Amino acid sequence: MTVLDTAIDPRSAAYLESRSAMLARLADLETALDAARAGGGEKWVTRHHARGKLLPRERVEMLLDQDSPFLELSPVAAWGSEYPVGASVVTGIGVVEGVECMIIANDPTVDGGAVNPYTVEKIRRAARIASVNRLPLVNLVESTGAAAPAGPPPGGAIARDLSQLTAERVPTVCVVFGATTGDAAYLPALSDYTIMVRGHAKVLTIHPQPVRAGANGRPGPEVRSAPTVSAGVTGPADQLAEDERDGLRLARQCVRRFNWRKRGPRPRTVPPPEPRYAAEDLLTVAGGRSGAPFDPREVLARILDDSDFDEFKPTHGTSLVTGWGELHGYPVGVLANLGGAFTPAETQKAVHFIQLANATDTTLLFVQYTDASDTEDREAADVRHGAPLVHAVAKSTVPHLTLMIGGTPAEELGGVYGRAYEPRFLFSWPVERPADASPARRKLPDDGVIDPRDTRTVLGLCLSAVHSAAVEGAEHVGVFRP
Asked: Where are the domains of the chain?
């Protein structure tokens, strides 16, 4: 066992400065989270409650097992855009009747439409996570329709994603709480189990009908909303709920009957030992300590079980730290860069390590630190030396988790760590943004900005989720060509 030794002096000026900088960023994040939780605002929330209805997070809480965690994904999506913070939908992973499920809950309190381009992107990301990690999907549906975007209307792909889950034998449950229009109207019919709340659920579809002339004299489409299904005996509901709470009870009942089994191995160590260093120290690690070089071992010592890390090739390719450890009992292989450009030595080291992780069916954790000042040099070096690493990451079939830390926002980073290479999960620490930079996240470059102190918990929940599917490595993931 190799225990990391990375003690930090909490009385130093650098510690206090870094901590203060990170706390300021976390305060901005909390403001955005408050806006997301507020939904459409006090007026619409009060009106919703007056009708005897629950808010989306209240529905999620009642669906989940008591005192179980809920890993909410992209909670501040659309922040800084013309659309409400949170993209009018709550998505995340939680435990229902002992089964880890992906949960999607529409927010009907948002005035002017509950579906917009951010909503579609966020729901599709949730469906993708459910698919690759083999997580049953529970849809809590009440959609007031589509907002009026500047471009083409959103939709179409959500129904396809749901159909794909069914084809992959991943169970889907849909609870309809109220009026449901647009793309969401297809969810009840496409789900394996459908529950409707009596007297409230109503499903409508949109039919274009050429009834008026367009600008060029030809008939133009007029969109009409036609009710096709009511929440009655003749509807497509497998079960009718008397109220919202009964609907959630029936959803839990459905999940209990899945007879669901995880395909991946259980944690190796139960209960896992805690790290030897305090998570509070993570506020300073990448919080802006002036003149201090970044050392990823300081992060690993505060998230790995017992701060135990067996480093691989420590004297070779020193701009990249690789090694083995456990996180919440699950074995992980870690690749963490120090922010500098890669040489052939780092590339060879990374490719070799990824090959070993695939040979042993071990999940990979990428810890990415990039300072904006070295981005140009790093990109130039990557072009010269990065091809073997691109091959290795693209061909690797074990789960990949990515943690973005440092001075560059996730949406500005590419390479093998980013969304293009489809990690199972990608989370970011708060970073400082220029005053004129827009924080809007239309493409959802990460699955959420998290408090550094929550890193171990978030990654532990992700590791548990990815083990719902089989964890299997590829036989061949790449070769090194200097």
From this structure: 38-256, 279-466
